[in-house]
Specification:
With 484 residues, the protein is an alpha+beta fold. It contains 15 helices and 15 strands.
Length: 484
């Protein structure tokens, strides 16, 4: 078969819809409209009260307001940073940016010993499945995590690649149609690997004759054991207990009944994962989940399953200090990045390859998808179409030229509507990256490397300023949580 024909049989390039920047009025968000409107009111009052002198005197107020409206930093207008800065300042004053574990004080049974808004999370060990489920009493969700392995995507044939992509799309669609799924999270992380598996295999099966091959192979194993890492992939599904309230009542009420409903989702997910050629290792129990939590907060910890301390009661951090742009936790420093823009041009399905396989960087990539029901998705699409048409009419009325980006956003909405009518699921995706290093200087270098890798993947990243602690729980832990 010719190479060109083989390429045509492979996965087609994909393009993400542009993130909507349509605001309340003429592309301005509510915060910018409020800031600009206040500035206009101050100008009018100054002119009425004091004429030219009043206009100049009131400039102390309306000039900063206009600057806050039209000057941007990190992709947001200065006035849009006001809620973030205000919330951050209030937390700093209340000393909520610092966390120290109270070692001598007992914790409530079943809690996970996490800081911040994750302190309310509780875990439930399901006796039938053996899995550890995490209950969020505030958001009314129950989540469970499965560890998966998979053959390298780039080494598959084009036909197998397309088959895997199709099966993964069906998996997302089935979760969306169930109506019970609050979120699904795919977490791909690098973890330190001392190479004991390879070294043990060579110790048992190698030829130890002291020859040239034996000497060089042993030296290679010793060299690769320093600073090497392995990849860990997990998938977390979260049950929306509000939507599943009827099924939970029929199962007997309470967390145990919710676990029974979630087991049905787990069985459906297992079937879909096998169809997508993803090999299920196991559903994570309390010890396995504790190891992930502990390694996230304490990168230098040698904690393994089966050892003392591998319990969720004590897996949380000992000390956390949240700063504006990074997080200091136990033996590491971390920065959480939000993927604010996905590729706008056609890219291959494995476009994140440079981010996933960035050399010498400890990082985790978290993709969180929130499924929408067909009725809810259609209402959202109608709303976005109405806003687009209204905004276009307002621009035409004042003689403002419509940008090509506005047209592209409208076409993306129509594409989503066509896909939804054709039976596909509508999902809201969020992407986060956590970069961890042992020192501030190494963290800065690692963040720069990851940002460069994201740029090569045609993605735009932004630091979650002022929300690092909340972002870390979302981006580094398999809990299927979200951030606004």
């Amino acid at each position: 078969m010719p190479a060109s024909a083989e390429r045509r049989e492979g996965p087609a390039p994909v393009r993400f819809g542009q993130r909507s920047t349509r605001g309340l009025l003429l592309g301005l968000s509510a915060a910018r409209c409020l800031s600009a409107g206040t500035a206009v009111c101050v100008v009018v009052l100054g002119l009425v009260a004091g004429g030219g002198i009043g206009l100049v005197a009131s400039g102390l107020v309306w000039v900063p307001l206009l600057v806050a409206t039209y000057v941007s930093w990190q992709g947001l207008a200065l006035c849009e940073w006001a809620p973030v800065v205000g919330h951050w300042t209030a937390r700093k004053v209340a000393r909520q940016s610092e966390y120290r574990a109270k070692v001598s004080a007992p914790r409530p049974a079943g809690t996970m010993a996490l800081p911040g808004d994750a302190a309310a999370l509780r875990f439930y060990e399901d006796a039938e499945s053996g899995a550890c489920m995490v209950h969020d009493p505030h958001r009314q969700t129950l989540s469970v995590t499965v560890a998966v392995t998979h053959p390298a995507y780039v080494l598959l044939s084009p036909g197998d690649q397309q088959s895997r992509l199709t099966a993964w799309g069906r998996l997302l669609a089935s979760l969306s149609r169930s109506g019970y799924c609050a979120a699904i999270q795919v977490l791909e992380a690098t973890v330190p690997d001392p190479g004991t598996g390879v070294a043990g295999w060579y110790e048992r099966r190698g030829t130890h004759d002291g020859g040239w091959a034996d000497t060089n192979y042993a030296a290679l194993l010793r060299q690769s054991s320093h600073g090497s890492s392995a990849h860990r992939s997990t998938i977390t599904i979260s049950l929306d207990m509000r939507r599943a309230a009827k099924a939970i009542r029929e199962a007997g009420r309470g967390t145990k009944a919710a676990a029974a409903v979630l087991r049905g989702q787990m069985e459906a997910l297992e079937y879909s994962l096998r169809a997508a050629d993803l090999h299920i290792e196991r559903w994570l129990d309390a010890a396995a989940l504790a190891v992930i939590v502990r390694q996230a907060y304490d990168p230098a910890a040698p904690l393994r399953e089966g050892r003392p301390g591998a319990t969720l009661d004590h897996a949380g951090p000992v000390a956390v200090s949240e700063h504006w742009g990074y997080l200091r936790h136990d033996s590491g420093f971390s920065t959480v990045l939000w993927i604010s823009e996905w590729p706008r041009q056609d890219v291959a399905p494995n476009f994140l390859h440079s981010v996933v396989f960035a050399q010498g960087v400890r990082r985790s990539l978290s993709l969180v998808a929130h499924p929408r029901g067909a009725a809810e998705a259609l209402r959202q699409i109608r709303k976005e179409k109405t806003e687009a048409i209204t905004d276009s009419a307002q621009r035409a009325r004042i003689g403002q030229i419509q940008d090509l980006s506005d047209r592209q956003q409208y076409e993306d909405v129509l594409t989503r509507e066509q896909a939804l009518i054709a039976g596909h699921a509508d999902m809201e995706f969020s992407g986060f990256l956590t970069v961890t290093a042992p020192s501030r200087d190494e963290l800065s270098a690692a963040v720069a490397q990851i940002e460069q890798a994201a740029s090569q993947s045609s993605c735009e990243t932004r630091v979650l300023f002022g929300r690092q602690a909340q972002g870390f729980v979302i981006a580094a832990l398999p809990l299927a949580r979200s951030v606004t």
